[in-house]
Amino acid sequence: MLFPVFGQNGVDFQRDVRPILSDACFQCHGPDKAIRMAGLRLDTRDGALPRAIVPGKPLESTLYQRITQENIALRMPPLASHKVLSEAQKATLKTWIEQGAPWKEHWAFRAPEKAAVPAGRSPIDYFVRTKLAAEGLTPGAEADRRTLARRAALDLTGLPPEPLDVDAFLADTSANAYEKLVDKYLASPRYGEHRARYWLDAARYADTHGIHVDNYREMWPYRDWVIGAFNKNMPFDRFTVEQIAGDMLPNRTLEQQIASGFHRCGISTNEAGIIVDEVEAIYAKDRVDTTGTVFMGLTLGCATCHDHKFDPISQKDFYTMAAFFRNTTQNTMDDNIPDTPPIVVVPRDEDRSRWTALNQELTAVKAKQARLRATATAGKSTELRSPIEPAAEVFSMRKEVRFKKGEFLTLPNQKVFDADKPFSIATRIYFPEGEDSYAVASQNDPEKKGMGWLIEIGARVANFRLTGDDEKSVTVRAAHMEQMKQGSWNHLVVTYDGSREQAGLALYLNGRVIPLQGGGDINTKLTGSISTDKPLLLGKERRRGFEGGAISEFDIFNRVLTAEEASLLSQWPKADAALTYLTLYDAEYRALSAKLAALTAEARQIRKRGAVTLVMQERTDRKPVANILHRGMYDAPREEVEPNVPAVLPPMDPSYPRNRLGLAKWIVDAANPLTARVTINRFWQEIFGTGIVKTAEDFGSQGTPSSHPELLDWLAVEFRESGWNVKGMLKLMVMSETYRQSPVTTPDKLKRDPDNRLLSRGPRFRMDGEVLRDYALSTGGLLDAAIGGASVKPYQPDGVWETVAMNGSNTKFYKRDDGLKLYRRSLYTFWKRSAPPASMELFNAPTRENCTVRRERTNTPLQALTTMNDPQFVEASRALAESALRAGGGFDRQLDYVSMRVLARPFAARERAVLRGAYVDLQAHYESHLSDAKKLVRVGESKPDAALPAAEFAAWTMLASNVLNLDEALNK
Question: Are 76 and 66 in contact (CB under 8 A)?
Fold first, then answer.
């Protein structure tokens, strides 16, 4: 057995007894009072003793009597539970009761303690070898240096070692040669990329919203922040606080705001039929579940509808946690746009200082304008027919036109409209009582696929579209919550700045700028012209009309109207006379308006060059609260609760605020028994393949017991006492003799420790899909070294996105990138939640719709098809073959070139003979099938060396592919 039934001190409650009770009894006799049978609790000492357990007397204990009952109708667990206790489990419970039924609270809820370690011993090796000795096993021999170099490189950078690094390590005879190699990899910028890859699974990072049309979301600055934080070795407590509440820190920096995007990575929706209360409950649950999994290792979500059935977490605990996250300014609807508020602009490094100064100038200009407005007088503004200067107005209609079925108004063509010219349209419309799609105004050419412009209303929201002469269009659509009321008059302003981009369009409804939802591809740029010789039509576009609607004003301007002017137009002629006078006649105010426009335009250019990212932002008009939802139903709110942490854990320090910042501080508080344990366990999982607690996501009673409890606690305390030093803890792990063991095993070890839970040999497991792809690109010399930046779209099978995407989604069609973007690290691959990168999903990558801290590891034929047939892997094999052929020196030297880059070692004589035979056969095949050879070496965008003989080149390509597909290459 993997773990003994009885330890040196007899039966241990945590190790031996609680797992039995949790699995077989807690379902009916656990924390959930709603389904508790007979009022009996077996998850607490007070509940179990003395009612069901009489210490020292198993035969008088109801628990033992019922589990050994001969009458099947009275035996526990009942048949309906589909649980059956083995004789060994019954014997364990009997022995435990005979020992006096000693009870301990669940180990994860107790503060970790450092057990004593003999002086001069590595704590990791001491605890592991003590366990091995107790099991009658011996540790494995140390792996050879080539294996160690490859293992350390993969674990610390996610990439194979450079042959020169391996050679230097082999030649270094100093006592700290291995430590120097480890330090080199820890200092590599590749280290942060590799660590970030694991974290992004936990953060559920993706490049799309996830629900409904699954449109693009600009979030990559958060990903880059994570990479930078790991590379800087940011203390993990700070790393945590900034992600949970970076936006709430005093004197917060831009980077801290970016970090708060951790809880903006969750899925969101813009589906028109949503129920707001339901979706808000879903968002809050996602954040509680993620926080519980990542930092606490608890399945808090199991208490959404009722008390947790296995752990001492009440339903109230869940909703007091939810209260921390139900006080943000985030809208329920994401509007299908990439920059759903709240956001921050992330300028390029060279623009940072100007961006800061620009915002200060904008604030100052707006303040001066506000002072002038406060003291303004009407002047002669009452004589005006419009609040806009006459020179800007190129067309005006001021009469009410009502439209019956089939009716419309034809007006002269307006030449002001073209793709590179700014313009604005202002109109006052009556929205019909009927439910339909309406054409308000248009000037386009149906014979040229709609070239021109169109204002329409669909699903009660305004829509403005420009279409170029190549059928490409840019569109903005009012957000779902900006619906017009049926049977009402509304003032609508649309503006276009001549930039040919979607970002150059804006909508104003009833005097205020309104949020927009996505429409079309945000990367589309108008080409050609939108000018047409067709007439301007009111109430018509092709077959659509404006039945039941009306237009009373229709004005066209030859420039972009400001928000202030849009507001004045909506109120005209009852607009504020003093403000109108300022905008038209006051020289100082007009100069400030011009300066504001110039500064705004400059700010837009900086934003365009940089990026935006979604962040958290706390509401200031109320305190965070939540309601307990009866049975988890959004429409059944009960008791209102304030933010708090689960009662089973140490309380929040009274000095901590009851908000996300207070929660973040509590998570990393020294009194919290979970955070350090859970985090160090995941780092162990990354290095050794399996955590000390296998169920990294569940440290509760249903989780797998710790294989080395004293080791986990020692590491947790050391992690905290080290100042939450991530690099230091990883170095401690990879420097240990336990880590440096050879993966070679024996039949006896395989029988007694099949999954290497006792660590009787070195770690060996199949690498994740991202690492396999990066590995192949690196060995072939194709991997692009650039760090950070927008996500990229490498090779992908045709139709993956198109099959699942909805019409109207701007991620419906996958347009592959080219050039160096094809060879970026997999970390930077565009992640569409409804269709994750196929070559990674096949290797168990999650969709990132939810938090994931432990990937499954399967082996399927499709994985082999990917590594042998995917263009990226074939191209990498060809690039590796090309480099080997260029290196020259004959077959053996060329084979060494390949093996040193893939395996960090030369092949043995027997292996060389096999590979030489394969090469001879391959070359003979391609000599007689030259067209196949040429086709093979042309796979991929990078250009093959045309000077190399096609048959030889193809044979080496296949040989390189064979080496890359060895188990030794696919496994760490």
Answer: yes
Rounded CA-CA distance 400/667 in Å is: 63
CA distance 809 to 812: 5
Mean pLDDT of 184-188: 98
| CA–CA dist 765, 88 (Å, integer) | 32
d(CA 966, CA 960): 10
Strand 461-467 relative to strand 451-458: parallel, antiparallel, unpaired?
A: antiparallel
Return the sign of the alpha-carbon dihedral for residues 907, 913, 918, 924. positive
Please, what sign has the CA dihedral across residues 317, 321, 326, 327? positive
Cβ–Cβ < 8 Å for 181, 169: yes
Amino acid at 229: A
Instruction: Write down the residue that tokens 């034809």 correspond to.
Output: 410
Handedness of CA 561, 562, 564, 570 (dihedral sign): positive
Give the separation between CA 50 and CA 37, rounded to whole angstroms.
17
Q: What phi and psi, each to the nearest 5 degrees, are found at residue 934?
A: -65, -35
* DSSP track, 603-648: HHHHHHHSEEEE---B-SSS---EEEEGGG-TT-EEEEE-----TT
Tally Cβ neighbours within 10 Å of residue 113. 10
Strand partners, 516: 478
**550-557 and 512-513 beta bridge pairing:** unpaired
Give yes or no for a contact between 842 and 862, defined as CB atoms under 8 angstroms apart.
yes
Rounded Cα distance, 690 and 853, in Å: 11
- Contact indicator for 205, 831 with CB cutoff of 8 Å: yes
How far is it between the farthest Cα atoms of the chain? 103
Structure tokens at 100: 């006096």
CB 189 within 8 Å of CB 229:
no
DSSP state of 407: -
Distance between CA atoms of 157 and 894, rounded to whole angstroms?
A: 26
pLDDT in tens, 657-711: 999 999 999 999 999 999 999 999 999 999 999 999 999 999 998 999 999 999 9
Q: Phi first, then psi: give them for residue 393, nearest 5 degrees.
A: -90, 120
The conformation of residue 462, written as its DSSP 8-state character, comes to: E
Residue from 59, 56, 57, 60 nearest 99 by CA: 56
Name the nearest CA neighbour of 480 among 275, 271, 340, 218.
271
Cβ of 94: how many Cβ atoms within 10 Å? 18
Instruction: pLDDT band for 4, please (50, 70, 90 cuts).
Output: very low
| Torsion-angle region of 146 (φ positive above 0: left; ψ -120 to 50: alpha; else: beta) | alpha
Q: 541 near 367, Cβ under 8 Å?
A: no
Mean pLDDT computed over every residue of the chain? 94
pTM confidence score: 0.92
Predicted confidence at residue 2, as pLDDT, reads: 39
Residue 492 β-bridge partners = 427, 509
CA 909, 915, 921 angle in degrees (round to 5)?
140
Across the chain, how many H-helices and E-strands are there?
34, 20
Instruction: In whole angstroms, give the CA distance from residue 487 to residue 485.
Output: 6
> CA–CA distance from 756 to each of 101, 147, 689, 751, 859 (Å)?
32, 18, 10, 10, 18
CA distances from 133 to 3, 130, 232, 455, 883 (A): 13, 5, 39, 79, 49
Local structure of 20: helix, strand or coil: helix
Alpha helices in 343-453 (DSSP H): 352-375
Residues 6+ apart with CB under 8 A from 777: 783, 823, 872, 876
Q: Which amino acid is at 702?
A: Q
With 0-12 / 13-18 / 19 or more C-beta atoms within 10 angstroms meaning exposed / middle / buried, residue 457 is: buried
Report the C-alpha gap between 318 and 182 in whole angstroms.
Answer: 42
- Checking if the pLDDT of 519 tops 80, the result is no
